[in-house]
Amino acid sequence: MVEPYPDRAAAIAGFAAHVNRGKTRALEAIGVDIVIGDRSGARFQDAYNGRWYWNCHCNGGVFNLGHRNPAVVDAVRRGLERLDVGNHHLISGHRAHLAEQLSASTGGLLPFAVFTPSGTESVDLALRLARAHTGRAGIVAATGAYHGLSGFALAASDPRWFDPFGPVPEGFTHVAYNDPDAIEGAIGPGTAAVILESIPATLGFPAPAPGYLETVAGAARDAGALLILDEVQTGLGRTGTNWYFEQQGVAPDMVITGKGLGGGVYPVSAVLLRPELEDFFDANPFAYVSTFGGAEIGCVAASAVMDQISELGFLERVERLGQRFEDGFDGMPFTLRRFGLTMGLAFDEEGGGVIAAKKLIDAGVFAVYAEHDHSVTQFKPPLIVTEAEVDEIVATARAALG
Ligand SMILES: Cc1ncc(COP(=O)(O)O)c(C=O)c1O
């Protein structure tokens, strides 16, 4: 594939002139001028100097199965022989099959899937559905949360994201994450739903305190409110189980998934629902329609993703590789927060996560800092890394950060 611009300077100038001037300036200021080019497996390459980077951010999980995962690419190629995005007015076997796979991944707890093109739209839909189902308006969310940047998802995210845009819809309350008293105090008879990321990504992956999610689930249940868990980053095997909620002994009413679901090649996202929540669509079958939600070619990609995740030994391997990172990072100047292959490198000093991310990028390991906690570097290698690759990444990171 030939790059559309002859050199780096022209590509950067084109981006600044026609896409985002501020982003270009910000990247320039920190000395990151990578133009992403070819990509394969756990790495991507700079388009102009040929340098390869280990992708230890994976766009929050989009590249869980690596870049251009061969089985996903093959499924999409074969799919393109006869499919396209499909027709959202009609019954689709491809959508049904993917929903069935997703249901199986929850052990049948959440047997219905409503498909959307993005995590943001899925969160938005889940919150609307919670209001319709309960007849209440209140939504309780966490400060420091990130659920997407439009509609109700924006209103549920940390206030810093919606502040520039004036008033958001009424009914949203934000409380500190991991504070059981605060959230119990916020949930009441007017609460339709509590929405939380199972492990808040932009807060730097703080583990839920022991019993926290159970307390939240209990408080929601007692108040007749729903529990929505945003597993856009933590689902699909990322933490060593299909879904992180399984490790916390809670049974959410709705789960949001996205990012890696489409295998990094086609956007697919979904809200997974308990049967009683489907009642609303039973009565109002056209209450949510989306031209591209559950596009059939995306379903084909996602089914190939689900096939791989459900292979025998896949999840155990995620945990084994996570442990290999943990062993390799022993003695490093950060506290490792680790859940399978979701990791946060937590430094003592504010800004430590930013400095570390830059050092890692310079050394050839792409990672980013946590937006709501600058002392943490998010570290999410693809789930398909080999043991030899883990060792190489660890050695590079040790040299960069040691
Ligand atoms: C936890 C979480 N929820 C929701 C979203 C929004 O997903 P999307 O960017 O696909 O709209 C993101 C995106 O980063 C996310 O990390």
Written description of the protein model:
The chain has helices spanning about 10-20, 20-30, 70-80, 95-105, 120-135, 150-155, 160, 180-185, 210-225, 275-285, 295-310, 315-330, 350-365, 385-400, and strands at about 35-40, 45, 50-55, 110-115, 140, 170-175, 190-195, 225-230, 255, 270-275, 335-340, 340-345, 365, 370, 375-380. The protein is of the alpha/beta class and about 400 residues long. It folds into 2 domains: about 35-60 and about 315-400, Aspartate Aminotransferase, domain 1; about 70-310, 3-Layer(aba) Sandwich (Aspartate Aminotransferase, domain 2). The strands form 3 sheets. It has a 7-stranded mixed beta sheet, sandwiched between helices. Strand 11 and strand 12 (about 340-345) form a beta hairpin. The protein is globular and about 55 Å long. The protein starts with 7 loop residues before the first helix and ends with a helix. Pyridoxal-5'-phosphate (PLP) binds near residues 118 and 120.
